[in-house]
Amino acid sequence: MAEILSLHDAVKQFVNDGDTVALEGFTHLIPTAAGHEIIRQRKKDLTLVRMTPDLIYDQLIGAGCAKKLIFSWGGNPGVGSLHRLRDAVEKQWPQPMEIEEHSHADLANAYVAGASGLPFAVLRAYAGSDLPKVNPLIKSVTCPFTGEVLAAVPAVRPDVTVIHAQKADRKGNVLLWGILGVQKEAALSARRCIVTVEEIVDDLNAPMNACVLPTWALSAVCVVPGGAHPSYAHGYYERDNRFYQAWDPIGRDREAFSAWIDEYIHGTPDFSEFQSKLARASEAK
Amino acid sequence: MTYTTSEMMTVAAARRLKNGSVCFVGIGLPSKAANLARLTSSPDVVLIYESGPIGAKPNVLPLSIGDGELAETADTVVSTSEIFRYWLQGGRVDVGFLGAAQVDRFGNINTTVVGDYHNPKVRLPGAGGAPEIAGSAREVLIILKQSSRAFVNKLDFVTSVGHGEGGDSRKRLGLPGAGPVGIITDLCIMEPEAGTNEFVVTALHPGVTREQVIAATGWELRFADNVVVSEEPSEYELSALRDLEARTAAAHGQAPGEA
Fold it and tell me: How many helical (H) and strand (E) elements, i.e. helices and strands, does chain B have?
């Protein structure tokens, strides 16, 4: 059964230094508040897994929480580069960071394998590509029935996955809809799973076949309204495209970035205070 | 009507998408061209985005690959793992529509690094969905602006395979799809030459000279025996494109990103 906890307590209890952590959400429902809380609690030596690192991992990497990144597309969507990610890869700032690079199909299959309790995923991929030359974990396997040579990649098995969703009920059953990405697979491939939600309701009223994660498959559910900002929560709020653009000059400069982290993350006790501070700063402009 | 070279590129790319075909769309230029096709010559084209929407009919162009607009206008929304497993690898995609940072004469694509992988000059975003789209779609269209920095003699990194080393090398690699059948740029259209599978210029956009295209290409570019001149964008095509861009700018409060 999932415990209904504050985000502070959930991160404290379920995210440990050195863990392999997946914060998933494909453009939609990105668990930003949880990323902030991991930074606030100064977790370190994390191996971060995520198909699209996005701003959330730019912040975690720049804040020095990560020793390794497993990913398949690292950019600021619609804007350009993730400068903290690039600075870590190109100039080892704030610390050296190992990267393990895949394609989307590979990582999506690797999450499925993880959720399925299998050691590896098999897919038709990578023939002729240079990616296997730089990622020794991309191997091949010969089909015992047809003889076809296929790609084999290790399953993703995070110590902890964090996702954001629209709703939970009071028992901690979670409902999400819209662009689902690999959220269900990421949740079920992990040893522990934290879900932040927009709200807790008496009854999910979930349509049959809706994407519901049962409480007994989760570790903690935390109510964090707006917790996916600047990404969006379908039915609740839109993507804040301006924040993605505003992040570019902050992320581009080490000092501007560090000042932002100090003021907005370490300078606030929780996500709700962070949001108030951000709103005040935006009004002052 | 006067038009820009970018508009010519988008219109030329949109014309390549057959009505009723199932198209796996990359974000940015491919998404713009594919939606222009849907709004003009190919109303029944089925657009699939890697975030999960199948049959998306966005009224404004998405800024990110997972915008809510794509989900709301789709016939169905499935998980990203299902998109890649059932729909792409399962062999249901007719056309993969891709952009690129660098492309070579065989239509191989680099979106990973400029320079050495372990000591990169420029770290690009990486593979995303492109390698498997390039591998498994029945055919592939590539759209990007032409310059000698993008059209290179040798890729720094092969992220997604086109025709490999040319000739039958793609077939020997065992890739199921036919590979890239067109590269559409702001100057011209290139298609693979029969046999060698080297991309040669088959159409020049109006007013573009051979010298201009040669200067914007990093390999010793060849031209097909019969090079045609692309048909100018019609008023219908241009107004559909401009309306789409105006709606997009109004919705996002900015010009649509081409990242």
Answer: 8, 14
Residues 80-119 of chain A whose Cβ lies under 8 A from any Cβ of chain B: 80-81, 85-86, 89-90, 101-105, 108-109, 111-112
Residues 6+ apart with CB under 8 A from A112: A121, A185, B81, B85
Residue-level pLDDT at B255: 52
Cβ within 8 Å, pair B53-A179: yes
pLDDT, tens only, A39-90: 999 999 999 999 999 999 999 999 999 999 999 999 998 899 999 999 998 8
Using the Cβ of B66 and the Cβ atoms of chain A, whether some distance falls under 8 Å is answered with yes
DSSP-based three-state secondary structure for A39: helix
Q: Report the catalytic residues of B.
A: 50
State pLDDT tens for residues B66-84: 999 999 999 999 999 999 9
How many folded domains does chain A comprise?
A: 1
Q: Give tens-digit pLDDT for A216-232.
A: 999 999 999 999 999 99
CA distance to partner chain B, nearest, from residue A258 (Å): 22
Q: Print the domain residue range for B246.
A: 5-181+233-250
Range of the domain at A97: 3-102+157-284
CATH number at residue A73: 3.40.1080.10
ipTM > 0.90 for the complex: yes
Q: Do A78 and B63 touch (CB under 8 A)?
A: yes
Separation between Cα atoms, residue A153 and residue B181, nearest integer Å: 30
Q: Which residues, numbered 19 to 48 in chain B, qualify as contacts with chain A under a Cβ-Cβ cut-off of 8 Å? A: 27
Asked if residue A125 belongs to a domain, the reply is no
Q: How far is B228 from chain A (nearest CA, A)?
A: 33
Q: Report if residue B166 sits inside a domain.
A: yes
Q: Are A2 and A219 in contact (CB under 8 A)?
A: yes
Number of structural domains in chain B: 1
CB A97 within 8 A of CB A66: yes
pTM: 0.97
Instruction: Please give the single-letter amino acid code of residue B139.
Output: E
Domain for residue B190, yes or no?
no
Q: Do A181 and B52 touch (CB under 8 A)?
A: yes
Nearest by CB: A77 against B65, B123, B170: B65
